[in-house]
Specification:
Distance between the termini: 27 Å
Low-confidence stretches: none
Number of helices: 5
Oligomer: single chain
Structural class: alpha+beta
Shape: elongated
Mean pLDDT: 82
Strand content: 15-25%
Helix content: 25-40%
Length: 159
Amino acid sequence: MSITEKILNLLNTTTSNYKGIPVNCFGLPIFKEYNKQSVRNSLSKLHSKDFIRYNGSFIKITKEGEKYIKRRSAFLQTFEPNSSNNEEKNLLVLFDIREERKTEREWFRRHLRKFGYIMIQKSVWVGPSPLPKEFVEYVKKIKLKESIKTFKLATGYKK
């Protein structure tokens, strides 16, 4: 999930704020793993797109922001792994998904991780074979299949 989507999701569900920033039950900022400037830039972008509004010292999600969240969550499905992540890693996955499809590329990487794959390089992963059938069908449906190549390894990958 991108920082933009995370901000909108939190504003859509979080009720605890401190000086306009979402906090957890301990009052600690939720975005502490992000660079402060990245959060500021994302908030500015969300505000310029009218996805959020500043209301005094608080930030509120707008109807447009809520619509965006619904569209994004309906757009990309989530899949669960068929097997354990400890299986032999014998499938090499290479992909080149264009920058214009950054959301889909991040979604694809997240699922490879979930399926027990290890990143060799950002677009080269190795993991257990085969990928779940429903996942492969969905990749075809969203027209990513032409950007992805898979190769069965003769012997399993050992890290």
